[in-house]
Design goal:
The chain has 51 residues and is mainly alpha-helical. The protein contains three helices and no strands.
């Protein structure tokens, strides 16, 4: 008879983390642009007014 192997705590934590991350809505488009530095590129090109 084979024994069922219980997953490690780390495996369970990893699985739970991926489940939680999968349920979050995507970030705001402005936040994505800011994190990618697109606003800085536009400023260098003169496409955006400087604040």
């Amino acid at each position: 008879m084979e024994e069922k192997k219980q997953p490690s705590k780390e495996d369970v934590r990893h699985w739970l983390q991926t489940q939680v991350e999968g349920r979050r809505p995507p970030p705001d488009p402005q936040q994505i642009r800011r994190e990618l530095g697109w606003d800085l590129v536009k400023m260098e090109r003169g496409e955006m007014p400087k604040r």
